[in-house]
Amino acid sequence: MDFRDSPREAAFRAEARAFLEAHKPARWEHPFAEDVDEHALLAGSKAWQRTLFENGWGAILWPKEYGGRGVGPIEAIIWNQELDRLGLGESIFVVGTAMAGPTIIAHGTPEQKARFLEPLARGDEIWCQLFSEPGAGSDLAALSARAIRDGDHWVVTGQKTWCSGAHYADWGILLVRSDPSVPKHKGITYLLVDMKSPGIEIRPLKQMSGGSHFNDVFLNEVRIPDANRLGPEHFGWQGAMTTLLNERMALGGTSGFFSFDALAEHARAHKERIDGVTRDQLARLYVWNKALDLLNARVVTKLGRGQIPDAESSVMKLALGRILTLGGDLGLRVAGPDALLRRGPWQHSFLTAPSLHIAGGTDEIQKNLVAERVLGLPREARSDRDVPFEALPKA
Ligand SMILES: Cc1cc2nc3c(=O)[nH]c(=O)nc-3n(C[C@H](O)[C@H](O)[C@H](O)COP(=O)(O)OP(=O)(O)OC[C@H]3O[C@@H](n4cnc5c(N)ncnc54)[C@H](O)[C@@H]3O)c2cc1C
Fold first, then answer.
1. pLDDT, mean of residues 87-104
2. Residue 390 lies in a domain
3. In this structure, are 58 and 145 located in the same domain?
4. Is-catalytic flag, 247?
5. How many folded domains does the chain comprise?
6. Domain with 191 in it
7. Is a pLDDT exceeding 60 seen at residue 301?
8. How many Å apart are CA 92 and CA 169, to the nearest integer?
9. Is 93 strand, coil or helix?
10. Are residues 337 and 266 part of one domain?
């Protein structure tokens, strides 16, 4: 494993850092803060995304012909690390630039690419992801939002849930059941939906952290032009895989969710509350955090050698969830009774940590992947792969 940047990587890091230092926004609304001012968030994020785009940093993994920088995954990790360094790692454009955009590039028609890619990368249009449903999360192919073809439109009825940012999104990437007579992975179609379409109702979900960043989205006979179908009819699963793979790649290297240095500073400021148990837990957390850094270095090294990381992302996701949970616990313990009196970053970490064990694939799903790919255990038995969707038992 090589921990140092190669000369090429070091040059890229210096270029990225110089750009960010010179252009970083004076004021930055954290997208998932409990008390975020959404008006300021949208205005600030759009202005920042436009600056990034105009300087070739708007969607760095995209090919240059679509307004990207055409760099590889190692540079994307370095870029994410540099954004994290300045606290700019989380963006309301991530669904657009990291998920919708690459899927449109891979599966879109020339007209779709011309219509959607530039406004997306320039920050003019915000995208959300309408994949999960109350009965389809870990088993996404069980989705049941129904799409019926009507001339040159699709008429969609169903419910999507957990949709981050849907309440301010302009467009959504949407998976629908277009043919229930074939097995579940086969009868899915991938559509691009205008979030202002008649028949869309968005209801924010209140989180225990106090914020409302996620939504239930109800689709009631929403008419979507067939021109907004991404990829062939009933073969949307391939597009879904493209979206999810790109999501993982773009998120590689982000550690902005947790800063051990900030926790250590918090602990030093409250020395009177550091007993033997807390000291022990802090040391444990330090070790876990270092282990995560090493895993990240392993992924970067593999990518640098032209290899594809496999189960590392599952192990990293599991480690990140644990680190955030223990970090939030310790932050509160160090704050002592003050933790009850006012809201602050440690309360936020504590209340947000559980979601990291679910979002982007739950802990149990990651463990299944590790069991299969690292330990070589047999795949989970599936009896539903070849059964028509309409014949499957429904909850
Ligand atoms: C913060 C956050 C943001 C999100 N944003 C979006 C978004 O923008 N758009 C979107 O479409 N979705 C989004 N999601 C949804 C997310 O993808 C799902 O929550 C996730 O895939 C889990 O699905 P589920 O909630 O339906 O849980 P389920 O799949 O119902 O799982 C319930 C429990 O059963 C366990 N389980 C399920 N299957 C297995 C198995 N085979 N083996 C062992 N255990 C199993 C799970 O681990 C879990 O503990 C978001 C979720 C979170 C938490």
1. 92
2. no
3. no
4. yes
5. 3
6. 127-235
7. yes
8. 9
9. coil
10. yes
Indicate if the pLDDT at residue 207 is higher than 80: yes
Distance of CA 291 from the midpoint of ligand 1 (Å): 26
The pLDDT of residue 95? 95
Ligand 1-lining residues (CB < 6 angstroms): 129, 131-132, 137-138, 162-164, 214, 355, 358-359, 362, 364-365, 368, 380
What percentage of residues in the chain have a pLDDT greater than 90?
A: 66
Q: 191: helix, coil or strand?
A: strand
Q: How confident is the model at residue 1 (pLDDT cuts 50, 70, 90)?
A: low
CATH number at residue 320: 1.20.140.10
- Same domain, residue pair 152 and 112: no
Residue 247 located in a structural domain: no
CA of 12 to the centre of ligand 1 (A): 36
Query: For residue 364, is pLDDT > 90?
Result: yes
26 backbone dihedrals φ, ψ, rounded to 5°: -70, -35
| CA-nearest residue, atom 2 of ligand 1 | 359
DSSP3 helix / strand / coil % (the chain, rounded to 5)? 50, 15, 35
Assess if residue 241 is contained within a domain.
Answer: no
Q: Which residue has the higher pLDDT, 359 or 240?
A: 240
pLDDT at residue 70 in the model: 92
CA of 17 to the centre of ligand 1 (A): 35
Question: In the prediction, which pLDDT does 339 show?
Answer: 87
pLDDT for the residue numbered 254? 57
Of 247, 265, 312, 364, the catalytic one is 247
CATH number at residue 213: 2.40.110.10
Pocket test of ligand 1: the residue of 138, 214, 219, 364 to mutate, having most ligand atoms within 8 Å of its CB, is 138
Whether residue 142 has pLDDT greater than 70? yes
Question: CA-to-CA distance for 37 and 97, rounded, in angstroms?
Answer: 23
Ligand 1 centre distance from Cα of residue 135 (Å): 10
Tell me whether residue 270 is in a domain: yes
CATH number of domain containing 17: 1.10.540.10
Q: Do 350 and 303 fall into the same domain?
A: yes
- What is the β-pairing status of strands 214-225 and 200-205? antiparallel
Which residue lies with its CA nearest to atom 7 of ligand 1? 163
Atom of ligand 1 nearest to the CA of 128: 8
* Main-chain dihedrals φ then ψ at residue 259, nearest 5 degrees: -125, 115
Nearest CA to ligand 1 atom 24: 137
Complete DSSP assignment for 329-371: HHHHHHHTTHHHHS--HHHHHHHHHHHHTTTTS-HHHHHHHHH
Question: How far apart are the CA of 364 and the centre of ligand 1, in A?
Answer: 10
Which residue's C-alpha comes closest to atom 30 of ligand 1?
137
Q: Are 354 and 302 in contact (CB under 8 A)?
A: no
The answer on 215 and 264 residing in a single domain is no
